[in-house]
Design a protein that fits this description.
By secondary structure, this protein is mainly α. Helix content is about 80%, strand content about 0%.
């Protein structure tokens, strides 16, 4: 056992929980793409994502419970709290986007929603791999590269949102504009929260490498 292993607490429960949470986030991203690309059986697909959001809430609760009763943690308590909350926000916004798609009664998704969903999914894949990397911190550079990719994808989402809103305001139906703009913005905010997760992971990689 090296010096680093002797100095850093080896309680792996937080890493187990973070990997579980990141896996749920990625699965929600996958389900979001499925819904966006095939806008049928919307209620059932939306409920599936809602169940994942509830499952993620349970994991988040477990992380905070562990944090409250663990004196020495493998990461700084603030880092643990920030990572848990930012991952939870991603799930909330994925779930919230599908909720709006369902309750607004839109007839179908469009190219902009599909593209935003795909960008979110790609971000969640990078996040899951980066989260796995913090367990051993053997390759902080690779974690940083994953985080940079998440940020790049968020920039692409900004462009998609801009094009979506531009196209939207060429239409004449005010209610449709309000509904679709809200969905676009909620999806884009999910990419913002993915970037927040990446920033937390990047800070962890720098501090503990």
């Amino acid at each position: 056992m090296g010096l680093r292993e002797l100095l850093i607490p080896q309680d792996k429960v937080f890493f187990d929980l973070f990997e579980e949470q990141a896996g749920i986030v990625k699965e929600a991203g996958e389900k979001l793409v499925i819904l966006a690309e095939d806008f049928t059986n919307v209620k059932e697909k939306r409920q599936c994502i809602e169940k994942l959001e509830h499952k993620g809430d349970h994991v988040t609760h477990n992380i905070y419970e562990q944090l409250n009763r663990t004196f020495i943690t493998p990461l700084e308590p603030e880092e643990i709290s920030r990572l848990a909350s930012t991952l939870d926000e991603v799930l909330d916004y994925i779930d919230g986007s599908t909720e709006k798609m369902f309750y607004y009664g839109i007839e179908n998704t469009d190219v902009h929603m599909i593209e935003l969903a795909k960008l979110i999914h790609m971000q969640t894949i990078e996040i899951e791999e980066a989260v796995k990397g913090i367990r051993t911190m053997k390759n902080p550079k690779q974690i940083e590269e994953r985080c940079i990719e998440v940020n790049r994808l968020e920039n692409l989402a900004d462009d998609v949102l801009a094009h979506a809103v531009t196209d939207l305001f060429r239409t004449q139906h005010a209610v449709t504009i309000i509904k679709l703009k809200d969905i676009y913005e909620h999806l884009e905010q999910a990419t913002d929260h993915c970037e927040d997760v990446a920033n937390v992971l990047s800070d962890i990689a720098i501090r503990h490498s």
